[in-house]
Amino acid sequence: xxxxxxxxxxxxxxxxxxxxxxxxxxxxxxxxxxxxxxxxxxxxxxxxxxxxxxxxxxxxxxxxxxxxxxxxxxxxxxxxxxxxxxxxxxxxxxxxxxxxxxxxxxxxxxxxxxxxxxxxxxxxxxxxxxxxxxxxxxxxxxxxxxxxxxxxxxxxxxxxxxxxxxxxxxxxxxxxxxxxxxxxxxxxxxxxxxxxxxxxxxxxxxxxxxxxxxxxxxxxxxxxxxxx
Length: 228
Fold this sequence. Notes:
Elements: H1 8-28, E1 42-46, H2 49-54, E2 68-71, E3 74-77, H3 83-96, E4 104-108, E5 124-128, E6 144-151, H4 155-169, E7 173-178, E8 183-191, E9 194-202, E10 206-208, E11 214-216, H5 217-221
Parallel strand pairs: 6-7
Antiparallel strand pairs: 1-3, 2-3, 4-5, 5-6, 7-8, 8-9, 10-11
């Protein structure tokens, strides 16, 4: 989805507003939604969607190589991923690959559209296929069959901040893969802004998606002995 850059005057006003809000948040200490989650992500500036997309054309500057996502009007710096995170994402790609075709496509660490103020970047999204592969717009909640977050250093952020947004948007099913505890949290059936069904699966279990596919957790998480 291409959005035209905001006029220069509006961009300057938004930056000044963001700076003032940032100063107020820092003075408030731990109070307020915009405080960064220590050790996980940073809530750095408050911008609208237009300015967020302007960043892609270098009209708004971030640190070189920094990955960010838009969450409730705030630009959030995304944590670097380690080898265990990469391994689990790769395993999931292989497991979901047989589903990719005329009905589904698999997006990896790509943004989705939840609202004018939220464009998160989940680790994997199984969405319904389109002939243009979503060249004209980002996948929205109605396009998504299953969403997966792989969590190592971001478990609290994924569970407490992103999951409620996914439920409120009506995404039918979300998995949070806790790579450190070696378990998967499965959420589905959103009702009134929250998931009405959830369960936690541990090693030795299998997980069945609402789509009907079943995986052993060992195939998702790998052999624990290889980590020693």
